[in-house]
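debug: dumping io for the single-chain case to check the tokenizer round-trip. Nothing else runs in this session.
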Amino acid sequence: MKKLTVLLVLLLLSTTLVFAAGAKETAAGADEPLKVGVIYITSPGDMGYSYMHDQGTIAAEAYFGDKIEVIRMENVPENDSSMRVMEQLIDEGCKIIFANSYNYQDYMLQVAKENPDVYFEHCSGYLSNDNMSNYFGRMYQIRYLSGMIAAKMSPSGKLGYVGAYNTPEVVRGINAFALGARAVNPNATVTVVFTYTWYDPSLERQGAIALLDQGIDVIAQHQDTTEPAKAAIERGKYAVGYNADFRKIIGDDKVLVSPMWNWENYMIPAIESVLDGTWKTQSYWGGVDEGMVHLSPVSPLVPADFQKEVAAVQTKIENGEWDVFWGALKDNTGAVRQKAGEKMADSDMLTMDWFVEGVIGSVY
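debug: decoded output
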């Protein structure tokens, strides 16, 4: 009888262990990937802004493999309909949502407050919440370097810039470009036109043509497509791209260089922090030193010795020895905005609403 009891106990124990092992296996098999929502203002087919964001998303997918599942939403307007898109992503199970354009921020903040168990990441804005961060990069550092190259290659010193909106982000980039240009050619000018749209291939092209008709021989841009650069190339002039490597896309060495983004350098750590439970709200503004921004390969038309000069300036920025908005600065009315020896604070750069000396145009 004692032997029988022992056998029954062993049998029961064995059955329990098998059941527990099976339950554990079932739970592991039921683990689902983290769902990541990504909202783009345009389609990645724009070969510009959203294209580079999607390259960051693709890099994140490659990095995490089956640990994540990405749901993309393209061509989402910057109005209250974006809230419905965010809510749809939440309904589909997304636990972190990235939105890639400035005017989503108010709508994202509202949705974030209503969904405290979801993490929100807004690109290029300044609003935040306990579960919402904002992130961007110090593109002005690369704009300065591209301005140096533009001035070196311009026969006339007359540069043009097609800007989307008169936001601090765009104004800051124009100013940095002009400062870089005038470091090479003190008489260089940068004439600005605003299209008041981030994405409109026709208006972007028209803006470039208006500048080219004034005798501009290098076109730079803060727009989402390649159209301003294409318009310059078609006139036999030079172009400075933006977002992606326009020289590679257009296939012409007259595209001198392109300031570019590495969005994966932010997206991957942000997703990782959700997976490991360490996500915290932040306002991130990474520069050259953190790999958030960089120059594309420079056109072979730019003299090799000058390329070395540009690289030397980049090294100073990377090492923290110098930055673009350090030192004496005047605006384009001649008023002193910053004295020699002073360094502009981030808060002043992030609210910049005036043009530096050498820029032809008005912010308002």
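debug: round-trip ok. The first strand starts at residue 34 and ends at 39.
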